[in-house]
Amino acid sequence: MTWLTWVLLLGYIALSFALYRLFPKAGKAASAALIPGYNMWIVAELVGRKPWHALWLLIPYLNVFIFAGLMVDLARSFGRFSFGEHVLAVITSWGYFGWLGAKPEVRYNGPILEVERAYRQELAAAEKTKEKREINKVHAAYPQFQKPFYQDWAEAAIFAIFAAAFIRLLLIESYIIPTPSMEGNLNVGDFLFVSKIHYGLRLPETLLMIPLAHNRAPLVGGESYIEGAELPYRRLPALEAIDRYDPVVFNVPAGDSVYVTPARTYYPHDVRTGFLPANVARAVESGQLELITRPRDKRDHYVKRAIGLPGEVLEIKDRQVFIDGQPIADPENVQYFYKVTFSTPPNRSKWSDMGISSPPGGDDVYQENGNLFIIRLNQAQIDWLKGNDPQATFEPVDQSGDKGIRFYPHNERYFGEMQVDNYGPVKIPARGMTIKLDERTHALYWRAIKVYEENPSYTMLNGQFFLDNQPITEYTFQQDYYWMMGDNRHNSEDSRIWGFVPEDHILGKPLFVWFSIKEGNLFNGINWHRIGRNASKQGGR
């Protein structure tokens, strides 16, 4: 068992002994407190709930909220109504109820929820009379429910945080598109609701964290969680499978180790391949910029489109994607770099309405000189620009000079010809798929084997391969993997840069755009036409 399991187990045992002293005050046998499970059955009864309410404690994560409610109501049933004591009842329940049981003056006042229901019924009847005297009489009969305003506010705020955290952890999470990698379909400044249950709910792993924060603490900076208190990976059954062209939100697999700067996050492969700004490279080399490790569920969220599925062979030739040797359709509104020469200076005031970002809101537009621009465009945007300037010319930008070590698997010996528009072929791992190990397959799959499948002992030595100190010649994958790409093909950091996405990194399915601001800046206005847009419908043409 992990240390956290031991802490929870010992805490429950200590709480049972605390209830041993408390139960007799409520007319219950002390020995009932020492029967695992049954003691919580009694607690539910004492606070005025149906005893079977305790069964909710068996459901992971929901049990945290159920336990907190039971402990607060138990304290109130013994006449303890201060906010501070309620906090102690939840956080240090074993100590608090042990202390309460030891106080001879403490009495059981009956099931608090039944008393509270009676109070609300009498108050509602008094309010119908509209007689202030009758209302005051009810308040006087139930002084325990007359709280100072700050306690009402604090309890409401805590309830709201608990409810929001529960929804965010287990059902739906809001996500903002920060970069233009999916431009054309999902734009910078789009706020999405993401379902966590469609592809199978991945149960939370990191327990000690700031509620409602992902991996960075708001305002103060730094990481928003404490490592060392993680539960093992578990996923509930999926409502649907990931299909080709589905947009998917996931934890970026390369994000297990990161260098965080105010501008963006960098990964170790950025350091190894030299793709760092000079000031960041100096900070890394000097040790000024610390390498941060992150658990799986606290790695950065990315949204990309599933292009390659488990077991398929993916290849890109001159921008055309092939799956198992057959060309597939591009997603709708896929974008590429173009050199655009206008016949006259263009009117750029309406460009952002067409999703063509212009500085300072985005980096999709570069003015080279005069009427020559470098712009990332989809076909609809090209047609629109041509409609405004029929003499304008559009020339695809040659990306062949950018190749080799920058691209996954960052190995020039075997994969030195990898490019953004010419990539592969690579076979995407699938659960149960077995590969023969050699230096080339090792270069392509070693990270999946060693890191994603948690085989730290896997290594290559003098051309031989070892796992758990035993020589091996092949390896069978334990989970499915996906190939994710952005629709903005020349401005997307995706599987071409950091490789396969393991199934255990999949977070959820984008549902719809609930809010959208122009170019990611509220001062630029609101994209009213994008609100309510289906975020998961766009696919191949």
UniProtKB/TrEMBL annotation:
Where found, per UniProt? Membrane
Supply one GO CC term from the record.
membrane
- Among the Pfam families in the record, one is Peptidase_S26
Taxonomy, superkingdom: Bacteria
Listed transmembrane segments: 6-23, 54-72
Q: Which Gene3D superfamilies match?
A: Umud Fragment, subunit A
Q: Which GO terms describe its molecular function?
A: serine-type endopeptidase activity; signal peptidase activity
Catalytic reaction annotation: Cleavage of hydrophobic, N-terminal signal or leader sequences from secreted and periplasmic proteins
Q: Does the keyword tRNA-binding apply?
A: no
- Membrane topology type, per the record? Single-pass type II membrane protein
EC assignment: the record states 3.4.21.89
Query: Which parts form a coiled-coil structure per UniProt?
Result: none
- Which keywords accompany this UniProt record? Hydrolase, Membrane, Protease, Transmembrane, Transmembrane helix
GO terms, biological process: signal peptide processing
Q: Where is the Peptidase S26 domain?
A: 151-336, 477-515
Please name the catalytic residues of this protein. Answer: 181, 304
Q: What PANTHER family does the record tag this protein with?
A: CHLOROPLAST PROCESSING PEPTIDASE (PTHR43390:SF1), SIGNAL PEPTIDASE I (PTHR43390)
Q: Which family does it belong to?
A: Belongs to the peptidase S26 family.
Looking up NCBIfam families in the UniProt record yields: sigpep_I_bact
Q: What's the protein called, per UniProt? A: Signal peptidase I
What is the organism lineage in this UniProt record?
Bacteria, Pseudomonadati, Bacteroidota, Saprospiria, Saprospirales
